[in-house]
UniProtKB/TrEMBL annotation, chains A, B:
<comment type="subunit">
    <text>Homodimer and heterodimers.</text>
</comment>
<protein>
    <recommendedName>
        <fullName>CASP-like protein</fullName>
    </recommendedName>
</protein>
<dbReference type="InterPro" id="IPR045009">
    <property type="entry name" value="CASPL-5"/>
</dbReference>
<comment type="similarity">
    <text>Belongs to the Casparian strip membrane proteins (CASP) family.</text>
</comment>
<dbReference type="GO" id="GO:0005886">
    <property type="term" value="C:plasma membrane"/>
</dbReference>
<keyword id="KW-0472">Membrane</keyword>
<keyword id="KW-1133">Transmembrane helix</keyword>
<feature type="transmembrane region" description="Helical">
    <location>
        <begin position="126"/>
        <end position="150"/>
    </location>
</feature>
<dbReference type="InterPro" id="IPR006702">
    <property type="entry name" value="CASP_dom"/>
</dbReference>
<feature type="transmembrane region" description="Helical">
    <location>
        <begin position="40"/>
        <end position="59"/>
    </location>
</feature>
<feature type="domain" description="Casparian strip membrane protein">
    <location>
        <begin position="9"/>
        <end position="137"/>
    </location>
</feature>
<keyword id="KW-0812">Transmembrane</keyword>
<keyword id="KW-1003">Cell membrane</keyword>
<feature type="transmembrane region" description="Helical">
    <location>
        <begin position="79"/>
        <end position="105"/>
    </location>
</feature>
<dbReference type="GO" id="GO:0016020">
    <property type="term" value="C:membrane"/>
</dbReference>
<dbReference type="Pfam" id="PF04535">
    <property type="entry name" value="CASP_dom"/>
</dbReference>
Amino acid sequence: MERVPGSFGTSVSFALRIFQLGFSSTSLISMCLDYDFNEVTTFCYLAVVMAYVILWSILHTLADTYSVLLKQLPQKPRVLSIVLAGDVVLSFLSLSGACGAASATEMLLSIDEPMCGDKRCIKYQVSALLAFLCWALFLDSAIFNLWSLYSLFH
Amino acid sequence: MERVPGSFGTSVSFALRIFQLGFSSTSLISMCLDYDFNEVTTFCYLAVVMAYVILWSILHTLADTYSVLLKQLPQKPRVLSIVLAGDVVLSFLSLSGACGAASATEMLLSIDEPMCGDKRCIKYQVSALLAFLCWALFLDSAIFNLWSLYSLFH
């Protein structure tokens, strides 16, 4: 059976996971560059979500590398369902984190401009933007895996 | 063919849409009770999203009422796909609006407590909570319609 490009174990999925890993780690680093980010709950939440995204992406990058380079991993409905569920949950978490951080930064800028000195708010904005891009990639992965799951039954 | 409970044109879907309509309109009213909400972009965004949710819910409540009481509407793949796409898009918009508003309110409370006088922030929090519940209901609708779309091909 031909595999859906972008589904678990393909080279497109590998590329997607590499981008996810890059975006999420840059987002976390950008947030952690400001030592006071843990004073605001929203920023802490985004950092925790990005840490989970990094773990998930590393796991999938390894699985995809193994599948592409060494031995093609089988696409079982149970495995695809778990990957799909993880992608959907993490996409919601990324979106909520990104929106929360973007909104909190906008509030900081409008109310307390001096607090945004030393390019603090730009770091938060970059972090939120990258989390938003992670959400878009998760959505792509979820759609490809759903399509693959559907095609398994046909 | 038996219909999936909760999918387009069933009584469970009607109940879901009624709750959506209730939550979204209460969220919009709670936001508009504060005259200054339009000073903050995030709150304006949530109000606009809730207005769209109200329109979508009214449309579906009417369609479901017609389908349940008068004449069962056919579940065509094209109709179900449009309903599913609308539900997914609005679920993302509701979640982003809810997270943004919740985060902005938290920021207001932590930085500028006096601005939250006259129970302003409680109104914002109620609005965000109801938008969050709308997201949960949209997710339910989307899952039921996806299931129904899947069962149409089997």
